[in-house]
Amino acid sequence: MEDIRAYIETGILELYVLGDVTPDEKLQVEEMAKKHPTVKAELDEIERSLELYAQENAVEPSENLRSRVMGSILTNLGDDNNFPEKPQPVNHKLVELTARKENNFYKYAFAASLALLIASTIALVSVYSRLQQSTNQLEAIQLQNQHFSNRVNLMDRELGIFRDPSFKLLKLQGTAKTPASVVMLAFSPSKKKVMIDMGNVKLPENDKDHQYQLWALVGGKPVDLGVFDAKNDSTGMKEMKSIALADAFAVTLEPKGGSVHPTMDQMMVLGKF
Amino acid sequence: MVFSLRNHEKIAIEALYDMYSAALFGVISRIVVDTAIAEDVLQETFVKIWHSFSSYSTEKGRLFTWMVNIARNLAIDKIRSKDFKNQNKNQELENTVNSIDEQRSTVYKPELMGVKDLVDTLKPEQKSIIDLVYFKGYTHVEAADELGVPLGTIKTRLRMGIQQLRKHFN
After folding, report:
1. Per-residue model confidence as pLDDT tens digits over B127-162
2. Shortest Cα distance, chain B CAs vs residue A97, angstroms
3. Which of B81, B98, B118 is where one domain is finished?
4. Which residues does A contribute to its contact with B (CB < 8 Å)?
5. Which pairs from A150-158 meet CB under 8 Å and 24+ separation?
6. Of B66, B81, B96, which marks where a domain is finished?
7. Distance in angstroms (rounded) separating the CA atoms of residues A181 and A28
8. Contact A61 B135 (CB under 8 A)
9. CA distance B162 to chain A (A)
10. B47-94: per-residue pLDDT in tens?
């Protein structure tokens, strides 16, 4: 009991009421007040007297301050009433989270779309170039195909010529001027067709100002059967102008396009039936 | 009343204002001399009381003690804040030396204290220490410096003064 008296006498309770104590001292006073009703009663007395002292020294604030203070408090009160205290932060948080998620979703969706677009573009370009390649290859193959079919047709016709009994084969031998020259020729009087086997033409190559000209000799007179070029790599049968009758065939070298009359000293080959 | 304040009832804060605004303003306006600023502080005090009421408990003591500590702390914060100091500086430039002294709210001036019929009750040295700590927001250490007396003496005078008040009010 003496201790408590002494504790009260230190004046710590007054300082406590005046808010002039350290946090430690504050806890200590509160402990003491809880344990000892005497301390609690003393504290209460000090508070009461200081409160009355403050009332004695009261100063009335201006009249309009009351409404100002109430206004600022009740603005907050209105908010509090509209949004009940507890659910508000929870709702708020929820909304915020959802919004953030949406933001993220759109961000990722946008990035994904962009990536997809780029990938698609690359794929499209590559597919397009492959398509182009395939088309080119197809064209080349078609061309080749046509070429082959042409050749097959040609060879078919050639074969037909050889098979056709109406065709007679004639070998035109080189004259004294060019003894090594040979021209193979097929003639069908009934079909009035004359063909030169270009693969079997052995003539000196003509220059670009000259061409070989085939003549048929009918009753001693030369008849123009058309011009041709002699090249090393030429193949196939070349059909010349038609004629029904011929005693002999000859080839002369003439100016390009051929002549009306054969230049006899330029006769390269000659063949008779 | 404490209960209805805890429930944030409008009528409770109005009653609280009517009962205590003058006593709190008495404390605030002795710390913050400028009436307009003191009224701002009073407003802040009630807003703070309203919002932090949940932290008050009757076990810790009387409601007024809690409120007056809030008011005193806000008032002291105000005069120590930059704004307030700057304002005082501006006024120093504009006004006369006389008014500067009046604005210097941390300087103890007994004539500004609410001296009523307590003059007979309290000895001057008791009154000055109570007023310094209670009304001016001094700590007892600062008060000892200000009055030039030892810390122990301050404590004793403070206690004696308050006991004097108790006798007076009883």
Report:
1. 888 888 887 778 888 888 888 888 888 888 888 888
2. 28
3. B81
4. 9-11, 14-15, 17-20, 30, 34, 43-62, 65-66, 68-70, 72-74, 76-77, 80
5. A154/A236, A154/A237, A157/A237, A158/A197, A158/A236, A158/A237
6. B81
7. 140
8. no
9. 7
10. 898 888 888 888 778 889 899 989 988 988 888 876 666 665 554 444
Element spanning B85, H or E: helix B82-94
In CATH, what number is assigned to the domain containing residue B10? 1.10.1740.10
Number of structural domains chain B divides into? 2
Test B65 with A51 for CB contact under 8 angstroms: yes
Q: How far apart are CA A112 and CA A103, in angstroms?
A: 14
Domain assignment of residue B65, yes or no: yes
A-chain CB neighbours of B140 within 8 Å are: 15, 18, 20
- Flag whether B31 is in a domain: yes
Please indicate, yes or no, whether residues B67 and B118 belong to a single structural domain of this protein.
no
Residue of A nearest to B50 (CA): A73
Residue span of the structural domain in which B19 resides: 2-81
Decide if B97 is inside a domain.
no
Which CATH number fits the domain that encloses residue B156?
Answer: 1.10.10.10
Q: Is-contact B71 A23, C-beta < 8 A?
A: no
DSSP assignment of A12-53 equals HHHHHHTT-S-HHHHHHHHHHHHH-HHHHHHHHHHHHHHHHH
Residue where the block lists tokens 């007056």: B68
Question: Tell me, what's the ipTM?
Answer: 0.74
| Partner-chain contact B23 A66, CB within 8 Å | no
List the Cα angle B14/B76/B132 in 5-degree steps.
Answer: 100
User: Is position B115 within any domain?
Assistant: yes
d(CA A248, CA B30): 150
